[in-house]
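Can't attach files on this board, so I'm pasting raw text. These are the components:
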Amino acid sequence: MNHIVFTRDANATLRSKLEHIPASDIFVLVDNNSRNYCMEHLNMGYVPGEHVITIAEGEHNKCLDNVALIWHQLSSCGARRNAVLVNIGGGVITDIGGFAAACFKRGIRFLNVPTTLLAQVDASLGGKTGINFDGLKNDIGTFSLPEWVIIDNHFLETLPPRQILSGFAEMLKHALLSGEKHLAEIMATDLSQVAQEDFLPLIQESVAVKSAIVTEDPNEKGLRKALNLGHTVGHAIESIAIKKGLEIYHGDAVTYGLIAELYLSVKKMGFDPKYYETVKAFIREKYPVYHPVGEPDGLYELMLYDKKNEHEGANFTLLSRPGEVEINQYCRREEILEALEQI
Amino acid sequence: MNHIVFTRDANATLRSKLEHIPASDIFVLVDNNSRNYCMEHLNMGYVPGEHVITIAEGEHNKCLDNVALIWHQLSSCGARRNAVLVNIGGGVITDIGGFAAACFKRGIRFLNVPTTLLAQVDASLGGKTGINFDGLKNDIGTFSLPEWVIIDNHFLETLPPRQILSGFAEMLKHALLSGEKHLAEIMATDLSQVAQEDFLPLIQESVAVKSAIVTEDPNEKGLRKALNLGHTVGHAIESIAIKKGLEIYHGDAVTYGLIAELYLSVKKMGFDPKYYETVKAFIREKYPVYHPVGEPDGLYELMLYDKKNEHEGANFTLLSRPGEVEINQYCRREEILEALEQI
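---
Top answer:
Structure tokens for the assembled complex are below.
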């Protein structure tokens, strides 16, 4: 993933990257938030040949109707195969924009300018594009790499603290996958400094953890599942929340998942209980208390890889120690229900 | 494209290929026609774990609503990432099924069992998947290769002669791209024999022409445009027909396009007028008379690569002789209007 640029001047970086991409037309995808807070800063969309496509913000707008809206606007502005789409926003925008680009005329090029911490350290990277479908998160999508990902933590200045925390959950996950050193660094972070120059190297380090894994296994045949740490439980919580129309931050769900899955790691993989308690206390201190979104059995159902083959249980990524990952660990119903009680 | 099998026993071949693909579930996509005429022959969809998805037949059903329907059925039957979709039918089925598979859970595997001549020699091969969108043919799609394409010309037995002719237009195009020898062979063909064992090698030869080109340039950066011969005009005719709700066979449109584009080849590339007259007479003898679908100027508009840069004209693939292709030939409005008069 050498197509990621870390910068303190996203405007200049974006312009210079676009100059080197011969394009018939430039399209800019934003939501109402990134349109208000980021597009002007980037000076995009104000010159002829730059078309702006705006969709409403929020996870429930990462849907097929909005993909059709993007395709329709590309089409009606006469976008050709060498057009370029610049996705400016959080994970919703980079996910849906990447998917729309990947399928329009069998693939136009796209750039991501992630403007939330979550998108900067996770969603905009690694080539996963997608939308939610039939109540399932990211159920439709492609593996398609952006030409460039431009990461500038200035954008985090205007981000509500709750959103910073949400992205920080993925940094915590990366640290757990990386090892003791990076984990200590992350747990000592002052989150009020997230938009400062000094914080950029920490983002870069977190991105490097994901990059190394994705480069090894771009299409998620094996190792990439390491990134699922905290997400088997986390996604189940989110899926129920989506179905019930409850708003839940992705990162919050991931931290609840981390508590449950580190507990399973202690029980099954010999993960040091001290680390488990430290991380759990850290999460408890910073993140909201978990309000159950549904019955534990409902969550368990959603985690099952194969509903017809229930005795297999659910498939987890667990840790034997910080930095030592064990993928494809199947856990039984009772183990999982016990773990869910710890959240 | 070494994943194409020519067989006289599609049933056995399909079973043997499926045995070697570890799959959680097998889904079969058909339209009403292929459900009635082909699915039973293949003995598919009658055992547990084989789910049948049926869509209505016809080009206008190659649309986003039907993709959503396929995704919904995959989803509600609990299809996982290692499910397999078997597309049984003509080009509409292999195009839309390939696209649905390419995006479901970021890509499940699929097999094509083309059951029309058009799909056997063209649509099901080469990895182009797609749907029509906003009145534009194949405007949304991906480049995604099927695991296997299984070609059995037994299926052509039940095909109406008009459909055989439609597919045969692509064989004629392949022959023009291949050279004098294959062209002579194709023009001497007895189309009433198309489902016989002796015809299979001719299909195989035609497929080889396309395969060689696609293997060189899978993502259509250059050489693959050779396959556009006859299609710049042909697609314009089809697009107007789709917009007006007129039914037109793809192959018929291609033969009209071939007449116009070989005329341009004579005028601009020194293509031998004798060949042009021979091919034109052959088409006139076998195919229906062209009934204009719209004004020539409307067709010209649709052919323009860049509507804002009209002086560039339209981009054609032309021939200097059979087997000698020249891509990216721009022709002016007057040249094109004159060529359209020849159809």
